[in-house]
Amino acid sequence: GAVVSQHPSRVICKSGTSVKIECRSLDFQATTMFWYRQFPKQSLMLMATSNEGSKATYEQGVEKDKFLINHASLTLSTLTVTSAHPEDSSFYICRAGGGGTEAFFGQGTRLTVV
Amino acid sequence: GDSVTQMEGPVTLSEEAFLTINCTYTATGYPSLFWYVQYPGEGLQLLLKATKADDKGSNKGFEATYRKETTSFHLEKGSVQVSDSAVYFCALSVAGGFKTIFGAGTRLFVKA
Question: % helix / strand / coil in chain A, to the nearest 5?
Answer without folding.
Answer: 5, 55, 45
